[in-house]
Amino acid sequence: MPKLKTSHFALFCAFSALTFAVPVSAQSVVGSGVPASTVPNSAERPIAFAEQAPDNAGLVILMESAELPNIPALSAAERGAVEAAIASAEFKGETGSNLKLRGIGGRPLIMLAGAAKSDDEGPDWKSAAGSAVQKLMDDDAELALVGPTDANAMADAALGLDLGQYRFDRYQTDVETVPAKQRVTFVGTAASAAQALWDSRHKHLADSVKLTRDLQSEPASALYPQSFVDRVSAEFKGVPNIRIEILDEAAMRKMNMGAIVGVGQGSPRGSRMMVVTYTGGSGAALALAGKGITFDTGGISIKPNKGMWAMKADMSGAAAVMGATLSLAKSRAPVNVVAVAALAENMPGANAQRPGDVVRTYGGKTIEILSTDAEGRLVLADAVQYVADRYKPFALVDVATLTGSVGRAVGNQYAGLFAREDAIADRMLKAAKDSGERLWRLPLHPAYAKAIRSDIADVKNSGVTDAPGASAGAHFIGYFVDESLPWAHLDIAGVDWNNSTKPLTPKGASGFGVRLLDQLARDWTAK
Q1: What are residue 508's DSSP bridge partners?
Q2: Topology of the domain comprising 47-190
Q3: pLDDT tens across 240-296, in order?
Q4: How, if at all, do strands 143-146 and 58-63 pair?
Q5: Is 303 a catalytic residue?
Q6: Are residues 400 and 490 in contact, defined by beta-carbon separation less than 8 angstroms?
Q7: Domain 207-523 sits in which CATH superfamily?
Q8: Annotated catalytic, 330?
Q9: Exactly one of 100, 135, 170, 303 is catalytic; which is it?
Q10: What is the model's pTM?
């Protein structure tokens, strides 16, 4: 009898060891520990420049009107057939319009792509080329693109095509038709000069936009604060005149960055602040600060499930400032820039901050947390104070997917622009026009500044009923930026993600802000 009891006890101990060993081991792994993909996106069409079109290539003709330009690659008979098709289809050459033709001569296809804009500001070569390549994603043929004649126009068309052909397909395993990857050659007498422009600037800009889109598109299981740091650091490896500083949670706590650490305290993935300095010119740097919430559940103030998947792109501001800096550095622009990514994952864990908490920021100012779902302004509060204090920039621009209200105010065609000074706003709007990434200025009224004041702390992060949401968010960030420092705030929540395809931005992540900030930094340097 005693022997039987001993056996039962031994079996119980062995069973207990088996049942408890697996959970203890599993808890040591954050996430599943199994990568969803180990391959890159599918190969895109490489870009080349030449004075003559390859004989067997499909021909893409960019047109400024219904009149067919002089195309040496077309014989007289082929030209006549194309002109007849233009007349029959009543093709006008308007931006975004396309006409695909087959069976003319020995070429696999001829496509006409409209570049004419209605505002008489000249042809839009970028959109024409981007739209054309999207229509030819499944055409397994080498392409020759003709129409633009000068070097700038040819390089612009190449930029548009490269942006338009972007895809994020590394997680798709059952695709029957792989997108075309045959070369596209831009043809014209200015091919050598266009190649030089492409190699020196346009290619780096396109690659940086595509990196930004990759970062936006990655699921939060793959992209979190530390992996963002690792991915971006790898892109800067070997690039001249770059210095990278990484602050982990321990370092940020020592500097009293309670706002950013507080946002991430409910997640097992620690918050990070990444600062990249590019020194290509002289004088003080332009500072770019980006919101980097790698996933936003809303925390304790949890969001509804509908649409929450899109919160993987709540780090779009951080991706944009890093993408712009990479473009400037790789093209060796004669400017100085310091970019900071404020990175955190906002999760409702057992240690998550609560509504009603008060946090202290880098500069000593305090914030009352009324909603844990107003977290982007919190990470930026520490970021803008830190970069202004440590790096002494001559101006500061922050970029954030901050509020849903900005999309309701200006839709999905513009990002919201906030600036204290007209001269700063005008500078931002000019860069927006030149880059093709649109901004619309919204008000920073003094009355809205009063609305963010807290009863028990300096300011509150939510619960503002006397100010529009986007303006309240801008005033909140502005509270942490000294009034002597030129500053602009970009709310990109309406433009970071496309629900439908556009010529330069296929459906999905837009990479908004890279082209704009690249242009701004080239135009705006310390005096």
Answers
A1: 498
A2: Leucine Aminopeptidase, subunit E; domain 1 (3.40.220)
A3: 999 999 999 999 999 999 999 999 999 999 999 999 999 999 999 999 999 999 999
A4: parallel
A5: yes
A6: yes
A7: Zn peptidases (3.40.630.10)
A8: no
A9: 303
A10: 0.93
